[in-house]
Amino acid sequence: MKRVLIAGEGSYIGTQIAAWLMRSPEQFAAATLDMRGEGWQAFDFAGFDAVVLVAGIAHLRETKENEPLYDAVNHRLAVAVAERAKAAGVSQFVFFSSMSVYGLTTGRITAHTPVRPKSAYGRSKLAAEAELAALANGGFHVATLRPPMIYGPGCRGNYPRLSALVQKLPVFPRVQNERSMLYIDTLCAFVEKLLASGKGGLYFPQNPDYVRTDALAAAIAAAHGRRLLMPRGFGWLLRLLAPRVPTLGKVFGTLTYDRAMSAALADTATLPFAETIRRTEAGV
């Protein structure tokens, strides 16, 4: 049995992973640790096989005033926790980074795409990645995940905003874009296999298929018993504006990981996309 510590009590991802692992008590024993404040520093990491760090700052409007907070939490706290875990004999450390390290609103990310973060969030994640990689050795495996947008029941961030908008609109433009997305259960299943392997490395978990924004909107509407009108003719304009207008780019632009980047542990079972949206909208 592997003892796993989820560092980031109350976080969306951490709560879901802990619940997922507890479904297999013969394989995993999961505990959570509150990372708010300085109380965590008195915690004894000894006896755990793996630490999954999910504590961090995201979905907060960035300002010059709060930029140091991103660095303090997403970067320096992550390194401090990893150092404590390594010193206590923990053999695997799982860190949640982000697609934001590439600094792209639109584009197709391959293994050769350079990392050029443009936000305090992305810079703090990339800085943490570098220092964590330096801590890794034969007895301390650091696994870094750079997931795309994560969605599922009770999720936070851009998905619930889009869902709320779709539920109010009678019309939604048809557009031929592609987005990498990641359903929370698919992520949890991936993390389970990663923990079982004990490996380190850089990972890019995503759904097996890219998602068009209009198909996402239609699935959300259908989950609420509605049908959207989807006129043609606006796609070319949205594709033209997406790289120039960040808000439009986040919704209607193409942003994907090359599927070859997600080959590791790719045999993870997944639900049909429409079913993942139905469950997300139903909150189950």
Short description:
The protein is an alpha/beta fold and 284 residues long. The protein has helices at residues 12-21, 67-87, 120-135, 158-166, 184-197, 213-223, 235-241, 246-252, 273-282, and strands at residues 2-7, 28-33, 50-53, 92-96, 107-109, 141-145, 149-151, 181-183, 201-203, 255-257. The strands form 3 sheets. A 6-stranded parallel β-sheet has the order 2-1-3-4-6-9, sandwiched between helices. Strands 5-10 form a two-stranded parallel ribbon. Strands 7-8 form a two-stranded parallel sheet.
Overview of this protein structure:
The chain contains nine helices and ten strands. By secondary structure, it is an alpha/beta fold. Strands 2-1-3-4-6-9 form a six-stranded parallel β-sheet, sandwiched between helices. Strands 5-10 form a two-stranded parallel ribbon. α1 crosses α5 and α2 (67-87) runs parallel beside α3 (120-135).
Sequence-ordered SSE layout with sheet pairings:
Blueprint: E1 2-7, H1 12-21, E2 28-33, E3 50-53, H2 67-87, E4 92-96, E5 107-109, H3 120-135, E6 141-145, E7 149-151, H4 158-166, E8 181-183, H5 184-197, E9 201-203, H6 213-223, H7 235-241, H8 246-252, E10 255-257, H9 273-282
Parallel strand pairs: 1-2, 1-3, 3-4, 4-6, 5-10, 6-9, 7-8
